[in-house]
Amino acid sequence: LGDYWRVFRDSVLPGRQIFADIVIIMTTKCTLRCENCNNLMPYYKSPYNVPSEEVISDLRALLDNIDTCVKLSLLGGEPFIYPELTTVMDAVLEHPSIMYLSLTTNATVMPSREVLERLKHKKVIVQISDYDIPTQKIEQFIELLKENGIKYTHKKDTDWVLPGGTQNRGKSEDILKKEYQACFSSRYCRTILNGKMYLCARGAHLTDLGYMDSEHDSFDLRKKRSREEFREEFKRF
């Protein structure tokens, strides 16, 4: 009941800043190389980990200046191969602005004992993306979560959405606007990568890979501002 009241309060009171879902990319390393990966993982020739101190600093720059994040999602790549996951989870779980913490996995690797202990936290839910491929250990993974009393969802992706490659497809501005406005991610999935928040994860990776460079598509979390300046600039963004 307290969580529902908090969301209702922040939704109706003037000046409150509440976000349904904020994603932070900790690593571009993945255990799969899906040809049509929405986040373009196969395009990384030298995948890397974002240092935990940068991940935490970028998160705090945002969370210290907004009121509520309903769900914070830790992503990769594959989050369970990120070597500093426990450090990031400890920092996230103690932050009062976060209501829930989500980790999305392809269930190809088992989390360590240290990570499992943190996954038991009441704020945490594990989201399993099931692509029905042999390298995934879906049943073993789910059994491990059940044994440890960890909340999870199991999503079987029967239809793969093909986002296309990185080439310019020659679409008009009107068509691009219509497609953008129809996209779920454009409304709800704000993504943080290397100190900037993007309007979607794909945009973050397109920029990171050098396919586009547009200042208005991102918000610089590392710029020095007062809390008031931050909230006003973020509202405009």
Total strand segments: 8
Distance between the termini: 32 Å
Strand order of the largest sheet: 5-4-3-2-1-6-7-8
Helix content: 25-40%
Point out poorly predicted stretches.
none
What Rg do the Cα atoms give? 18 Å
Biggest sheet details: 8 strands, mixed
Secondary structural class? alpha/beta
Shape: globular
Portion of residues in beta strands equals: 15-25%
Nearest-integer average pLDDT: 90
- DSSP helical segment count: 9
The secondary-structure element order is: HEHEHEHEHEHHEEHEH
Characterization of this structure:
With 237 residues, the protein is α/β, with parallel strands linked by helices. 35% of the residues lie in helices and 20% in strands. It is built from nine helices and eight strands. It has helices at residues 2-12, 52-63, 85-93, 113-119, 138-147, 173-182, 184-188, 201-208, 227-236; strands at residues 18-25, 68-75, 98-105, 124-130, 152-156, 189-193, 196-198, 218-220. It has an eight-stranded mixed beta sheet, sandwiched between helices. Helix 2 runs parallel beside helix 3. The two termini are 32 Å apart.
